[in-house]
From TrEMBL:
Belongs to the Nudix hydrolase family. Gene3D superfamilies: Nucleoside Triphosphate Pyrophosphohydrolase. GO terms for biological process: DNA repair; DNA replication. This is 8-oxo-dGTP diphosphatase.
Length: 262
């Protein structure tokens, strides 16, 4: 199926001051009524994605979105529709107003490590897994990475080697993904990328690691985030010492998080 046949849909991961995100239930009369999801909806003809996101949140929840940050894209095939989902993150300081259930739906604040509502809309399982990845990590490419601050979800990701338990989160070069997937759950494998071909290969991984040690690395990643948004979280590995220009604000450009090399 070509992308021309896909319905363009936006969805927002809305955060509060406590770092929790919002889930709402689909109202009666809609497909998958009662299932929980991230608020959003269809992009209308002539409408920008941000404008669609702002309209949907106003119509569904009565709040105003000032701005939002591109995050992940997904293609999902439902029985009733084939959709191209564009997920945005909306920080606590990027929206205002009083949440109101304008479609008689339910809503609640959740944490990635403690989802208390069900059932979830099928397309959202990988989104919830992505939200559990910290936005700040540290470590070294040779030894592994871990959560940078105690306030964030504890996570360790290790370089793959034979004998590691299949429950261990590991990383490998993107070119080795398919081979390793025969021995290790793909949901536990991160891929290291340096170019567009590897970026494409890595879209089946749990996350992408993009090392940045030169201006060329920065420019390649900026181009990919703009022209080929990722379906999986992108972690920018800021290597040091680095003779690069000032680092872009990666989190506002579509990257999920930063890994600071130590």
């Amino acid at each position: 199926m070509s992308n021309n046949n896909l319905i363009e849909v936006v969805a927002g991961v809305l955060y509060n001051q406590q770092g929790e995100f919002l889930l709402s239930s689909r109202p009666a009369g809609k497909a998958y009524a009662g299932y929980w999801e991230f608020a959003g909806g269809k992009v209308e003809a002539g409408e920008s994605r941000l404008a669609a996101l702002q309209r949907e949140f106003a119509e569904e929840l009565g709040i105003e979105i000032n701005t939002a940050t591109p995050w992940l894209t997904k293609i999902h095939h439902y029985e009733h529709a084939h959709v191209h989902l564009h997920f945005y993150r909306i920080a606590a300081n990027q929206w205002h107003g009083q949440l109101t259930a304008r479609e008689q739906q339910s809503w609640c604040w959740q944490q990635p490590s403690n989802i208390t509502v069900a059932p979830m809309l099928p397309a959202n399982a990988p989104i919830l897994a992505a939200l559990a990845i910290p936005t700040s990590m540290s470590g070294h490419l040779n030894t592994g990475f871990h959560s940078a601050t105690p306030q964030q979800s504890a996570l360790k990701v290790l370089p793959y080697q034979c004998g590691l338990a299949t429950t261990t989160m590991v990383y490998v070069p993107a070119s080795q993904l398919k081979q390793l997937a025969d021995q290790h759950p793909i949901t536990n494998i991160w891929a290291i990328c340096h170019n567009r071909e590897q970026w494409v290969q890595a879209q089946i991984a749990a996350a992408i690691i993009w090392p940045v040690s030169s201006n060329e690395d920065i420019q390649q990643l900026l181009t990919l985030l703009q022209q080929h948004p990722s379906a999986v979280p992108v972690m920018v590995l800021q290597q040091s010492p680095s003779h690069t220009k000032i680092q872009p604000d990666w989190l506002t450009l579509g990257a999920h998080g930063i890994i600071q090399e130590q």
